[in-house]
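Per reviewer request, we include the raw input and output of the structure prediction for the construct analysed in the revised manuscript.
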Amino acid sequence: MNPAPQQRPGTRLSATVLGARDPRALGAFYARLLGWRVIEDQPGWVMVRPEGGGAGLSFQHEPELVPPTWPAQPGQQQVHAHLDIAVADLDHGVAWAVAVGAREADYQPQQNVRVMVDPEGHLFDVFVGPV
């Protein structure tokens, strides 16, 4: 067993990875939604990042992906994580998300946040915040 290091090694968050039946299509969706660019496009793996750098999103081929049920229900696939996407104007942000391929979830628990569903069934929230 190796002893624990005395100092934290250099680290950074590279990306959040989402499973996808079609990683290329989901990568294109998020690139368009966020105004980012695809920086890697391989069979089974796509990465998108903002122009200025920083953490991005990656999409891994998962042919057996089961989208979560929203709202959560016993015995159904649960939401494990979701993305929060800040917009300057809620109505405009929701309309843009729909225009590029998302849909609004049927259940909306908050008036100032919209729960959206991406083309693979992952949830993300759109809310007004600093952009």
